[in-house]
Amino acid sequence: MPSRYPRIDPQGVKTRSIADRAHKVRVSDFGRPSKGEGFFLEGLPRQLKAQDWLEFCRSLAGAFKAGKPVIVMLGAHVVKVGCSPYLIDWVERGFLTAVAFNGATAIHDLEIAVWGETSEDVAAGLEDGTFGMVEETPRFIARAAERALAGGLGLGEALGEDILNADAPNQQASILAACSRCGVPLSVHVAIGTDTIHQHPAVKGGALGETSMTDFHIFSAAVSRLSKASVVMNLGSAVILPEVFLKALTLSRNLGHSCQGLITADFSMIQQYRPTVNVVGRPTTSGGGKGYSFIGHHELMLPLLHRSVEELLRG
Is 155:208 a contact under the CB 8 Å cutoff? Predict the structure, then answer.
């Protein structure tokens, strides 16, 4: 039984030759499996995120080669999944001009440096009220904050010095220690009440707040030196560091620093609003800048980024 509904008759359709059609994909864009060392980037498909990856890696390698300012901001998960060594390598080679942490990143980096272990089972500790209730970590940070307050230092600067002065057994795995040793400003941007150390009676909000404010001014000074083709990367901070960067950038521009033509990139495990607008979008709208967004697990993306840039640096 035929359908009771009317049907269109395609017999009058007008066609054209495929030779006359514009195309977005060509066989020359296809990927090529790598046959040896040093050909990963050459073999990427010239499409979508792979093309973005190649462009950004070229920009980052170019900034490294030219000695352009490069700033990295990172959330705690980057440290927790073991990616510190890739950033430490760039610090030690003089490629990074500033590093920014939130409070949790500083906690995990410190614990790795001093005790070689970090991160706990939050759900289990929350049940019995032991989550975050260690003694040593908040005491260490409280002492560093008080010393920083007395000496006019930033919190990150004091923590890095204290790790080195304590001859921490795992300092080679600490970004705080590497930046202190190499003279790279590392700022810690604390939001009171967000970190486990804030539960401890030894930690004073005045010291944390004042030294974190000093770090904001140190970070803003680094931002003020950004120029065309400088690079800013946000690695895994969903809220705090994208907001800090936006305020540091507007402060710098308000004081007469151009900071135009920036290359920025956000590395997140899921698409996040603030990194997308405050790192990738708004800062790059003038001066010929460009922002990139890459989604993936940090324990894969950061080693891949390091390897890709190294390939370009070696020619």
Answer: yes
Q: Which residue has the tokens 């904001």?
A: 216
Residue 74 — φ and ψ, nearest 5°?
Answer: -140, 145
Q: Measuring CA to CA, which residue among 69, 128, 32, 20 is closest to residue 261?
A: 69
Give pTM, 2 decimals: 0.93
What is the pLDDT, as a whole number, of residue 125? 82
- CA within 13 Å, CB half, 221: 10
CA nearest to 195, candidates 185, 203, 186: 203
CATH of 46-313, one of 3.40.50.10690, 3.40.228.10, 3.40.50.300, 3.40.710.10: 3.40.50.10690
Chain CA centroid to CA 22, Å: 38
Q: Is 42 exposed, middle or buried (0-12, 13-18, 19+ CB in 10 A)?
A: exposed
Neighbours of 142 (CB within 10 A): 18
CA distance 50 to 41: 9
Residue 28 exposed, middle or buried by CB count within 10 Å (0-12, 13-18, 19+): exposed
Give me the residue spans of the domains in the chain.
46-313
Q: How many Cβ atoms are within 10 Å of 85's Cβ, its own excluded?
A: 14
Check whether 87 has a pLDDT greater than 90.
yes
**pLDDT tens for residues 137-195?**
999 999 999 999 999 999 999 999 999 999 999 999 999 999 999 999 999 999 999 99
Pairing of strands 231-235, 263-268: parallel
Taking CA atoms, 124 is separated from 66, 95, 120, 127, 130, in Å, by: 49, 41, 9, 5, 8
